Amino acid sequence: MFAQIFAVTIFLIMFGLIITERFPKQYTTLVCGALTLLLVFGLGMQLDIHLFGKEYSSLVSIKETLNIHNIFTPGFWYTAAGEEESKGIDWATIIFLMGMMVMVEGMARVGFFRWLCLKLAKAVKYQVIPIFIVFMLMSAFLSMFIDSITVILFLSAVTIELSQLLKFNPVPMILAEIFCANLGGSATMCGDPPNIIIGSKLHYTFIDFLTNTGAIAGIGLLIMLVYFYFVCRNQLKSKEAVNINWLPSPESAITDKKGFGISSVIFGLAVILLITHAQTHLSVASIGTGIALITVITSAKHAKLLLKKVDWQTILFFIGLFVVVGGLEQTHILELIASFIEKISAGNIYVMIAIIIWVSAIASAFIDNIPFAATMVPVIQNLSLTTGASMLPVMAWALSIGTDIGGSGTPIGASANVVGTSVAQKAGYPVGWGEYCKICAPATVIVLLVSTISIFMRYL
């Protein structure tokens, strides 16, 4: 009783502080994680044992939540060695994210992303509408493998640079890029943090996501190309004729030719390892560690700078978050949530899937989708116990689509949204809630409807 009350209270306080952004989010989750260890696993469980005779073990709960022992098991690094269901801190997700962050910083240092943007713009002869279409496709494709924040950071900066040279309004193009980044991120396991959490917790592979959520994202992307073209085409007209001979060459973006070649090979290797990890049995933790080591070794002179630029705030945010969610897991709150969803759906699997998609989407439009996904994974695991194991993958794809796509609905729904609109604002193109939602909210609803229908038709 007391442990559950403490766990829910700490979780709600954490969510409220994350939404209001009164404190840096990593401090919020770390402090709430510490309170979980002290109040839930310490005080709360001891009170429940003495007053109500509950069968809790504080030490076991702390061990399972911190989950450090899992790192030293063969199955953590090589999945053929055996996979055990792990609870608490998902170290595989954290190590994989750290590795990919190091790789991305290495690519950014040599000018890979700016070169790619300018190369594609030149390929379509700097025509605004073709650039618009190509950049949407590139945003979706890169976000399948690279964190969408990085994709949007560089893509929006180049979009603004091109808009100043080609004399068009960059805001519609940036909003379309943001939406496609979130859409592309839903297509693969490594495309968006919620997918990394879902994949590592439920042992799904890159190919599993690509053939399921990827297929849905592909349909959504085709529809969105048409949608954004008709919605934004009038705003993208050049205001005056431009001499393209004055535009920067793609080669000017490369700051280190040797490093550029090495970074391209490392990126290709990362893609191959992710696609084949079901066959090689290398875990995402092994892949992330290997890619990071190769990047650091081949960029020895810049190794310190690369490690310094890793988003350590996000890593700490994840650690604290997993501890808080572990408190809900150890006190069986997540089982109660699963039972509630089952009850209100009256056992109807169509209603249950619809609830998972749309509740995930609505929640992710206003709150960080990472803690929501981390909370919901154990919930759908519990739901699968009553609906059947065959329904777990379907619920996983529904959760992935809901959290990834729902975040596109508002300017604060996903990190890529915040980054893209911030870059635009700094360049003198402020994007208000009204302008953002006018373009992206209908797009979000359309893709969610298509996704819901697709899941119903394919799986149910």
Describe this protein with a few key phrases.
single chain, about 450 residues, mainly alpha, 21 helices, globular
Describe the structure.
The chain is mostly helical and 460 residues long. It contains 21 helices and no strands. It has helices at 2-20, 25-52, 58-66, 74-77, 91-109, 112-123, 128-142, 148-166, 171-185, 193-202, 206-232, 257-280, 284-298, 303-309, 312-330, 333-344, 349-366, 369-387, 391-406, 415-426, 433-459. The longest helix is centred in the N-terminal third of the chain and has 28 residues, at 25-52. It is globular and about 80 Å long. The model has no long low-confidence stretch (mean pLDDT 86).
Which helices and strands, and how do they pair?
Blueprint: H1 2-20, H2 25-52, H3 58-66, H4 74-77, H5 91-109, H6 112-123, H7 128-142, H8 148-166, H9 171-185, H10 193-202, H11 206-232, H12 257-280, H13 284-298, H14 303-309, H15 312-330, H16 333-344, H17 349-366, H18 369-387, H19 391-406, H20 415-426, H21 433-459
Briefly summarize what is shown.
It contains 21 helices and no strands. By secondary structure, the chain is mainly α.
Biggest sheet features? none
User: Which structural class fits the helix and strand makeup?
Assistant: mainly alpha
User: Averaged pLDDT, please?
Assistant: 86
Radius of gyration: 23 Å
- Indicate the low-confidence ranges by residue numbers: none
The H-and-E topology, N to C, reads as HHHHHHHHHHHHHHHHHHHHH
